[in-house]
Amino acid sequence: MTVLVTGAAGFIGMHVAATLLDRGEQVVGVDNVNNYYAVSLKEARLATLTARPGFTFHRMDLAEREGLLDLVRKHPEIDRIVHLAAQPGVRYSVENPRAYITANVNAHLEVLEAGRHMKKLRHLVFASSSSVYGGNTKLPFALEDPVDTPQSLYAATKKADELISYSYAHLYKMPLTGLRFFTVYGPWGRPDMAPWLFTEAILAGKPIKLFNQGKMQRDFTYIDDIVAGVIGCLDKPPAADLVPPYRLYNIGNNNSEELERFVQVIEQACGRKAIIELAPMQPGDVVATYADVSATHRDFGFAAKTGIDEGLPRFVEWFRAYHKL
Q: How far is the C-alpha of 256 from the C-alpha of 182, rounded, in Å?
C-alpha cells in the first residue's frame, strides 16, 4: 500500500519519505513549498525524491478546504498518513501569528478530515513539538507533565493539534499518534536553525548570537534518530482495544546539551573559532529541553544512537558540500 507524507519538501519530511522508499513503500508527497526559507533548498530536497521510483508529488496548500480530501479519494491505495507539514519556528510566530493558525491548525484539521473519510486508515502519525512543555522546569520532560503554559503561539498551535487529534480519535475511532520532536538537526536541515546559522557564520568569519547569555540547553536529536522514531511508531498503530486509539510520545536524544558545548563541537568540525555575541533571552523561547523517552522505548524500542559529537560533523560536511565550500 501507500503512505501519504505531508511536508515532503521539508527537512524531516524528505528524510522520512526517502526511508519509506528505501524499504519499498510507495509514497505520495504533499507540500506547498512556501518561501519561509529558501525555496531552492526545498526544491533540491524534492529533487532527491522525484528522481526515485515509487514517489509522486502534489504541490498544494493543506489549509485549502477539502483539497487533501480530494487527493486521498484519487489515491485510494493510501492507507497511512505521516503529517509533518507545519509552519515552524518559535521566534517567527511572534512576527506572523496568522501563518501559524493557517498552517498548523487549519491545515491539521484538513488532514484529519481527509483521514476520517478514507476507507481504510491504518494509522495517522503527526508531528507535535517539545515546545508544548512550555514553562516547565522539571527535567527531563515526561508525557505526564502538564503542558498548559505555552511560551509561544507555535507551541500553542502544536498543543491545539494534540487536543483536536484526541477528539477525532474519540469521535471517529481513528488510530492517531502524536510525536513531540526535540530540536532536530542534520544534513538538509533548516537555515533558521542553530546548526546552519552557526556553521554559516563561523565559516564566513561572522559573529554568532547566543541568547540568554549562552545559558541554554537543548536535547539535540539527529535526523536519522527522528526518522527511526517516526517509522517505528508508524508501524505500530494504537492497539485496537485502546479507547480512544490515541497516543503521544517524545522523540528526543534523551540528553540535554549545553549550548556552549554545542558551539565547541561545530568549531571543531569547521576548523575555526566562533566570534560570539551574548544576547538576552528571546520572546517565546525556553531555557532548557530534555526528553524522557521511556514510553517510546517501551512501546516500540526507540533509542537515539547519534550524539552531537558524531551528528554535527556530519551536518558540517553536508553543509560544505551543498554550498561547494
A: 10
User: Is the peptide bond prior to 140 cis by the omega test (within 30 degrees of 0)?
Assistant: yes
Amino acid present at 177:
T
The full set of domains in the chain, from first to last, is 2-182+222-252+290-305 (3.40.50.720)
What is the SS3 assignment for 103-151? HHHHHHHHHHHHHHCCCCCCEEEEEEEHHHHCCCCCCCECCCCCCCCCC
The tens digit of pLDDT for each residue in 213-245 reads: 888 999 999 999 999 999 999 999 999 899 999
Other C-beta atoms closer than 10 Å to the C-beta of 179 total: 24
Which residues form the catalytic set? 154
The predicted model gives 39-62 an average pLDDT of 97
What are 288's strand-pairing partners?
217
User: What is the rounded distance in angstroms from the CA atom of residue 314 to the CA atom of residue 239?
Assistant: 37
CA 290 to chain centre: 16
CA pair distance 253, 178, nearest whole angstrom: 17
Mapped onto helix, strand or coil, the DSSP state of residue 37 is coil
The neighbour count for residue 171, using CB atoms within 10 Å, is: 10
SS3 content of the chain, % helix, strand, coil (to 5): 45, 20, 40
Distance (Å, rounded) from C-alpha 231 to C-alpha 16? 8
The pTM assigned to this predicted structure is: 0.96
Mean pLDDT for the chain overall: 96
Q: What does the pLDDT read at residue 125? A: 98
* Three cell numbers, residue 165: 487529534
β-strand pairing of 257-258 with 217-218: antiparallel
CA distance 103 to 11: 16
pLDDT tens digits for range 93-150: 989 999 999 999 999 999 999 999 998 999 999 999 999 999 898 999 999 999 999 9
